[in-house]
Amino acid sequence: MGRPVTPQQTEFRIPFPRAISPDVSAVHPDSMAWLRGHGMLRSDAAARRVDGWRLTELAGRFFPDARGADLRLGADVMGFFFLFDDQFDHPGGLRAEAVAVSKELLRLTSRPAGPAPAGAGPVVTAWADLWDRSCRGMSAAWRVRAAREWRRYFVGNLEESVAREAMPGDSVEDYLRLRATSIGTTPVYDLCERTQHFEIPDEVLHSHHVQAMRDLATEIVVLCNDVASTIKESARDDALNAVLFLERRGARRGPAVARVRRMVDDRLAAFQRLSGRTSRICAALDLTAEQRDRVDRYVRTALVSVVRGNYDWQRRSARFSVGDARPGTLPGYLNDLVGPHLDAVDDS
What we know:
The protein is mainly α. The chain contains 16 helices and no strands. Helix 5 packs parallel to helix 6 (122-135).
């Protein structure tokens, strides 16, 4: 008999081709150096762990047409996402320091892009640099909507922390609505445009059609991610996971995973149906050939690339391995990036 399949290696039938930027290896050292230079990585042990997470590879899969400095920006954002997200995993619950940093980030989204205020901590200075680089060359309309999606993400992290203590709603659908804001896919969709040098026409982006495709793509990412991280989040007794959510309502592990896989299949089928009708939306809106090309690029190198790229990456990343799991009695972060002393947690 073969070895049992771990949750991380669970197969999903993702009907999209693999794609990855050829510049992953070239930009990886500089991205790791950026994280250390901005104080997001504060120990050699933390750097080794993050290196195993393959975040530059994730960027290469999310932004397959990005090259050089554009891919570097995407890789730096991936590093920020994961290291900042982990600051909310604390045995004592939501920390006042994490709330304060989140509020400062929210304030920055309403200001012109530029350096962080003097005396800001590593999270704020890192994000200010990312936001400044992200805005270069993009339209005013893109900047407004990208700032809005970042705000939703920053607030979503706070809401998710509260929900760990009292999960709102009784269904997986309620859970998915909560996770859709904190998973971080919508800022990534915007970054797909920035790193690959195009903007989807506003009239298409704001259509119910494309918004429904974005929602489906986000839910697919959440569900696939939840299966891969089952062991890690079970070790922390984290309720915010679709598989564990179903287990707490009486399902055994195998049937719970099977149900989540069916949910992914249903959403992939719905996504493909909508994708097949996108040309009709473009025709109804009387888009030019160049505008239609930008819509096609958005579907291919934003929505599809994020769905497919997340799946391919999560099967290879050490972030979901048994060895990366930390019990709920310990902080989920590697280094404290928001506390008053910014203490390193893992110096082994």
